[in-house]
Amino acid sequence: MSVYKPLPIQIERGEGVWLWDTEGNRYLEAYSGIGVTSLGHAHPAVTQAIQNQAAKVLHTSNLFQNPNQKALADLLARFSGLAKAFFCNSGCEAVETALKLIRLYGHQKGFEFPKVIVMEGAFHGRTMATLSAGGSKKTQEGFEPLVPGFIRVPFNDIQSVKEAAKTHSDIAAILVEPIQGEGGIKIPHDNYLSELRAICDQNGWILALDEVQSGLGRTGTLFSYQAAGILPDIVTLAKSLGNGVPIGACIATESVADLFKPGNHGSTFGGNPLATAAAVATLTEIEKHKLWENAKIQGQALLQGLQAKLKNHPHVKDIRGKGLMIGIELDRPCREILLKALKKGLIFNVTNESVIRLLPAIIYQAEHVQQVIDTLPSLIDEFTKQ
Ligand code: PLP
After folding, report:
1. Whole-model pTM above 0.85?
2. Cα of 238 to ligand 1 centre, how many Å?
3. pLDDT in tens, 116-170
4. CATH 3.40.640.10 applies to domain 44-288
5. Which residues sit with their C-beta closer than 6 Å to ligand 1?
6. Which end of the chain is more exposed for a tag (fewer CB within 10 A), N or C?
7. Range(s) within the chain of domains with CATH label 3.90.1150.10
8. Is the dihedral of CA 28, 34, 38, 39 positive or negative?
9. Rounded distance between C-alpha atoms, residue 124 and residue 374, angstroms
10. How is domain 291-357+371-386 classified at the CATH fold level?
């Protein structure tokens, strides 16, 4: 079904931060397949884990216990400070899980129709509930009626959350991305998450953070909320969790997680032996090399390098980023720049029409950063001169 507009090359193989197409052309990846292959392509430890597990058993269903699931849950609990995990196959499924926990929590509080505060410009996925929670009209258009129960407020605006608290008596939670990814790399002020945490505490609401894109080292800490020094009640993960093997997770505090009883929720493939083996290998590598520190260092160098070259550019409205999550906002729609970039051997993407989005692998080294700094500004120049 034609839901995508793919670029006119076919990728044959990848290694580290490089991809090769079927014609033998090599590309520097500055996008990691939408923030997924954080350890780069064909990472030996992940490949080995997949091969080993494939030779043992691929699928058993959740009728049985699975040692990889336990190992992954233990790693996530240790890294996040949360207690329990539910495994699924994608980001939207992880957010659906969070929304179901929130509904149970609201009903437990005696609300007939529990509500969730969500943000303008948010993106949480393409299922009916997640697109309803999202803040993009384009994603929702044509799919009405939307799932009810969401109160939308501007992102990065504490006052509007406080006002919502005054007008609604049946709010159960806030669902928010620590940094909006699809919305155009929007970074809130430094105290935003801690202020949201405080409001949730005052009102007895759940704070659910969607770290599907920002999590697992990308923004300079393992989880973005760790930079704010807070602990949320629910965190959703996917994308880079399996370094390319589909897996999602919803992790939560014990009291929130225990709202689910056997039979309340499930997923045939969720937490299968193969995906959890890949995720254990991925997290082990991230921890072994403290790759969030590398993301911070390389991210700063990339942001500063791009700012130095582009800050006075007449068609660049803003350059912003945290760690290796970087956006360059142009004054015009710019998807066509991707074709020019391919010709120069560089892969990235455009979000929100006019924001060039970089999500490089968190194994990036100085030479890769330099190559992006050497290539991208001249591409923007060429593109905006047309
Ligand atoms: N949440 C966030 C913050 C995302 O960026 C995305 C995907 O881009 C999703 C959820 C949905 O993830 P998936 O495409 O794996 O369903």
Report:
1. yes
2. 7
3. 999 999 999 999 999 999 999 999 999 999 999 999 999 999 999 999 999 999 9
4. yes
5. 90-92, 95, 123-125, 177, 181-182, 210, 212-213, 238
6. N
7. 291-357+371-386
8. negative
9. 33
10. Aspartate Aminotransferase, domain 1 (3.90.1150)
